[in-house]
């Protein structure tokens, strides 16, 4: 079935120019172009700042603004970070911004963070401009630029403040769009690219969410011959969406790159400025939270607790319990906050999987995270690592077994009360060349990594130890479609009633944003205020 996605709930900003019109008709670009071409100062904002946008590449040509993308700050209603990167040093990196009607009246200087890739010895410079004190539920236009190059333009809509409808999307395990594997074995599949990694970006943009959660394994640079090009290609592919809406990431095992920082995440930490969680500098950005409407999103890095050896180095336990302590206090404060109804966790490795011959589920997550998810009634977990889509029943508690099998509290129906149990979604069909939708056990079974053995030369890592168990929590498995994502539409509901999230799993099945609906279900819980 092919279905046209419905327009997002955030269609009509206060400015009177709809977001869709801005994006699909190029109204923002037209605004800028007209301004530059004919008396641009007035259209572009204050006379003092207008001409600074009118930069021309100098004779030598500075590197362009590469991989323009956004992140929300801790309060998505008021804070946004604009980021781009170069390998050359640049002068005066800055963002000019304003509203569609007022123009680019405000200039914000960017701060530059760098990392040096240990494999290529290339230094990457990532420029981050923090736009704060924004108005909720409002469209902004911006231009990112540094001296000697042309500005790159984008728009962003801030989150509504309080209980309002909003849409977000989620998937993981994307890689980069390439047909190289079909034409040139030199380029091969060393970084797991496929054409679907491009198609999914088009599809996300078609759905126009307020933000997109990226559930780890972004581009597989740690497998690539050329890590820098792989990151660059990933941002080049996704900037056509991520410059208009934040793509908020969780770090996966393939963000762990040998030699890049003390635990391998220096590239990931440089490319993204996520909300601060007061962690040590070396661990900055690996876990964080932000609020959009009545939803608190918590992003975790599961390599800290997983037994599986999945990155370029084995870093189990790297935070010394710091991430778990932060998670518990974060969950407690979310549940104590009367403005928050929904607690959603975005992470990479999974506590559930019914696929064989893939990574499986990890006991470390079940031991360390799931008791906290139970205690604080986490509503929804989105993850990846397994390259397919599947859904659990709401689960609460664990069997008294070696694998701590999650216990389903309901086993039927498509309206799920998440105050009774947490729903886990594996959404790992983001675009890699190695989908696992054809690898499901015929009857639901789960391979659980319960530990690791010695380093195995044949696989180049510590060998996982598996226990296979029944999977009574299994609710839905998509064996038909290798690629897809989920859209979540939050309905705040009436005071004193229930709030809900309608979830739609879309399969991505071609270019031009071609999708079809595979399954829909609704999460519901009593509204807090
Ligand atoms: Fe993956
Ligand atoms: Fe992974």
Description of the structure:
The protein has helices spanning 19-24, 27-37, 40-44, 50-53, 180-183, 196-207, 227-242, 266-271, 322-336, 363-368, 370-375, and strands spanning 66-72, 80-86, 94-99, 103-109, 111-116, 123-131, 139-145, 152-157, 166-171, 211-214, 247-249, 288-292, 295-299, 342-346, 361-362, 380-383, 389-392, 395-398, 406-408, 415-417, 423-427, 445-456, 461-470, 474-478, 484-491, 498-510, 514-526. It is of the alpha/beta class and 529 residues long. Strand 25 (484-491) and strand 26 (498-510) form a beta hairpin. Helix 6 (196-207) packs parallel to helix 7. The two termini are 38 Å apart. It binds fe (ii) ion (2 copies).
At the first level of CATH, the class of the largest domain is Alpha Beta
What is the name of the CATH superfamily of the largest domain?
Metallo-dependent phosphatases
Q: Roughly how many Å apart are the termini?
A: 38 Å
Note the total helix count. 11
Number of domains: 2
Secondary structure layout plus pairing:
Blueprint: H1 19-24, H2 27-37, H3 40-44, H4 50-53, E1 66-72, E2 80-86, E3 94-99, E4 103-109, E5 111-116, E6 123-131, E7 139-145, E8 152-157, E9 166-171, H5 180-183, H6 196-207, E10 211-214, H7 227-242, E11 247-249, H8 266-271, E12 288-292, E13 295-299, H9 322-336, E14 342-346, E15 361-362, H10 363-368, H11 370-375, E16 380-383, E17 389-392, E18 395-398, E19 406-408, E20 415-417, E21 423-427, E22 445-456, E23 461-470, E24 474-478, E25 484-491, E26 498-510, E27 514-526
Parallel strand pairs: 9-10, 10-11, 13-14, 14-16, 15-22, 16-21, 20-27
Antiparallel strand pairs: 1-2, 2-6, 3-4, 3-7, 5-6, 7-8, 9-25, 12-13, 17-21, 17-24, 18-19, 22-23, 25-26, 26-27
Helix pairs in contact: 6-7
The structure holds fe (ii) ion (2 copies).
One fe (ii) ion is lined by residues 173, 217, 385, 387.
